[in-house]
Request: fold
Amino acid sequence: MPQFEQLSIVGVGLLGGSIALAARERRVAGTIVGIGRSPAKLANLVSQGMLDRVATSLADGVATADLVIVATPVDLVAETVADVRKSAPASCLITDVGSTKHDIVAQVVASSMGSHGQFVGSHPLAGDHRSGAEFSRANLFVGRTVVVTPDASSDAEAVSQICEFWKALGARVVEMSPAEHDQAVALTSHLPHAVASALASATPAEVRQLVATGWSDTTRVAAGDAALWRQIFLANRPQVLAALDQFNQHLALLRAAIEAGDGAKLEQLLAEGKRIRDAVGN
Amino acid sequence: MPQFEQLSIVGVGLLGGSIALAARERRVAGTIVGIGRSPAKLANLVSQGMLDRVATSLADGVATADLVIVATPVDLVAETVADVRKSAPASCLITDVGSTKHDIVAQVVASSMGSHGQFVGSHPLAGDHRSGAEFSRANLFVGRTVVVTPDASSDAEAVSQICEFWKALGARVVEMSPAEHDQAVALTSHLPHAVASALASATPAEVRQLVATGWSDTTRVAAGDAALWRQIFLANRPQVLAALDQFNQHLALLRAAIEAGDGAKLEQLLAEGKRIRDAVGN
Reply:
């Protein structure tokens, strides 16, 4: 028997589509319903077998759901969850896949008086620099980390079920408060994006013929969608600014050692970066 | 008939070893001689078939060479080339694989009065974050760029032969002056390394469990050898400092847009980084 009789996914892009494929392959859900604004695109996903049926109205799509995944852009998550709660059964679990958590969880909690459904925030650290359901894959979450972010108001059973859901898709689950999550991803995800983008922008056309794998690796994430990253940076502004300041301090130390010609200090700083990079691996 | 009757390689690490393997496979050289300080290690490379014979004295190893590749650490290149010139035949071509070019070429030119051999600097944009002859491979240069850096004193025929040599190993050759080269690689190689290192160092242990592919890509080059990179940064100091300043300006623009909550400006900056990254590809 699947963990959830009906799984409804709001926003079937790369993440929503991969959740559908993984839930199907691993028999985690009975019926899988896709909800979105483009009936033609969704109908195509039904004919491919990714979805069982589609709904273009949120109310229709979640009315009999046991689990709803809100996989919309991050700035629409809180209001979409609020809308889901108006139409979903009282026992329905709700989670999201947003890259920031504090503001989303706070808004959902603030709007949840008397409404239906148990919301627990999630952030799967999985993806691709390409977006769109056509790049979905059933193994997207295998071996990846999903952060689940309960707060003081979360129902323990709901938290446990959401954690089990992600594990069933092959992920490793880490629980953190929404604030801890946002501080951590500012350093591990948002800062690298800002740095990669500035690095790409600092590379004038005339030197690009000398680009090799080092530059390509270091700038790779800068190919991410600009509108999506704009939202992420703004949704996590204080943490991103703090992360940038932390980075700038380290880069300033390196610059000072180079400027002073202080080889010993320079090597010590580079060895520290290498130690941390080696400890993470891959 | 091979392009060179005898190829001698001074310093048989990842690059020197890969040149030996590629020259053998592509029949670019008749006899391949390795020169280094560790007879046991070199003898092992002979028994593996990478080298035909070894020499622990530079004079012996280059006495009958047609082409000498100096693949020592960058701070030893100029003096090694000067030593090669004392013992090599007058017609012998000499190149190197150093990551910086202006100082090396200037020192070689300054020391070349009346000595033998035609030196033309090279920088293969190929490598690995691992070092050592055991990671050598015959296809290391295939499809990669090698920058050849003649100056006003270079012999045109020598430049042409060095270019042909790299092309014969499968590389794409770009000619640039030593100064142009150093300015370009400061932006495309040295700056990414500094940024990756600072980014790794700015990541505290407690958040590393949330590291995903974005962080891993952006910091990958920070795993490079600290002693080697110390030399590269110091050998190219003014250009690296200028590249860091250029980067800092772009990052400051991003930071200001985030701090001001200026979504339109932020998206414009991110789109510019994406445009450049997409143009390079892979």
